[in-house]
Amino acid sequence: MLGCAPTRAWAKGDTLTWQGATRTARFGMWSLQAEVTEPGDLDAQVAAILSRLTQDETVWAEVGSRYDLDLFCGWFMKYSNEGMAIGPDTMSALGARGIPLDIDLYSGDSEQVPDQPSIGRSATRRAR
């Protein structure tokens, strides 16, 4: 239906084992994982996932009417102040499919930040 096999999946009621612990799944899940990139390129990774899946918007409407859609991205930063961008084509493709983008940001070590003022601090100083 979606055009490719998931990286991992389970159904509600399945027995799941993780790190030696066993539990019963309270909900089903279908997951497709992107390849890790160095340096990170969120736009390219999201586009790569979408390219593997069907582009048929009627399929996405059907899936979205039956299941909660979510594209989860964990962004692990090396420094405490980094940026990322999602291009308009990628945002449009997500919107056409009704897929919300859920990003969790994990801050890097502020001790590793180079001795240069951050963009936010510079802008704040100019504003005063």
UniProtKB/TrEMBL annotation:
<dbReference type="Pfam" id="PF14106">
    <property type="entry name" value="DUF4279"/>
</dbReference>
<feature type="region of interest" description="Disordered">
    <location>
        <begin position="107"/>
        <end position="128"/>
    </location>
</feature>
<dbReference type="InterPro" id="IPR025459">
    <property type="entry name" value="DUF4279"/>
</dbReference>
<feature type="compositionally biased region" description="Polar residues">
    <location>
        <begin position="109"/>
        <end position="121"/>
    </location>
</feature>
<protein>
    <submittedName>
        <fullName>Unannotated protein</fullName>
    </submittedName>
</protein>
